[in-house]
Amino acid sequence: MEAEEWPVWAMDQAERFVPATLLGYVQEWPFQPLPKGYRQMKQGACFRNAAILVQRDPSLCYCEGVAGPIVSDLVPHAWAVDQNGRVIDPTWCRRHEGKRYFGIPLTTEWIFETARESGHGGESLRMLARRIKEDPSAICQWIKRERLI
After folding, report:
1. Which residue of 25, 47, 71, 131 lies most exposed, with the fewest beta carbons within 10 A?
2. Do 99 and 46 touch, CB atoms closer than 8 A?
3. Is the pLDDT of residue 147 over 80?
4. Which one, of 125, 36, 16, lies nearest residue 78 by Cα?
5. pLDDT band at 118, cuts 50/70/90?
6. 3-class SS at 75?
7. How crowded is residue 85: how many other Cβ atoms within 10 Å of its Cβ?
8. What is the helix (H) or strand (E) element at residue 129, kind and residue range?
9. For residue 76, what is the enclosing H or E element?
């Protein structure tokens, strides 16, 4: 979904957390219950939880951005997406029906590089925006360009 196509409420919220240079790469996914074979993980640790999932299963893609129900504020969040475009969110897996995810699919290499540099998760998008200012071609290395259904 191109940034111009986003619902106004989503764009207003996303601009608070997603660097402007990256808004055109954001994709949207609907909520779904946690699929069989996955278990709930620690609440409040979404960046770590999503990173663990993609480390354990390389077929998954790490996504970072914002998420929440349509009627309330979106918050910074991370989740995984499988090859069929299904959200795998072990942090908010049992509640939050009606929630939408707006994020950018990132390579596993980028996630672990930024975690090493920053010392924690959740900095991937800000660090990518800074890197792109220095070297615009970096975006091709770190964002998964194919649509995740």
Report:
1. 71
2. no
3. no
4. 125
5. confident
6. strand
7. 13
8. helix 124-134
9. strand 75-81
Which two tokens mark 80?
């995984």
Q: Are 35 and 92 in contact (CB under 8 A)?
A: no
Please name which of 5, 9, 1, 22 lies closest in space to residue 132, comparing C-alpha atoms.
Answer: 22
* Nearest one of 105, 110, 137 to 121, comparing CA atoms: 110
Q: Using 50, 70 and 90 to split pLDDT, how confident is the model at 80? A: very high
Which CA distances in Å does 33 have to 44, 65, 78, 92, 119? 18, 19, 16, 9, 31
Mean pLDDT of 22-33: 84
Every domain of the chain and the residues it spans:
3-105
Model pLDDT for residues 30-53, shown as the tens digit of each residue:
888 888 999 999 988 999 999 999
- Tokens linked to 10: 């989503």
Strands (E), 1-60: 27-30
Q: In the prediction, which pLDDT does 146 show?
A: 58
CA distance 49 to 37: 15
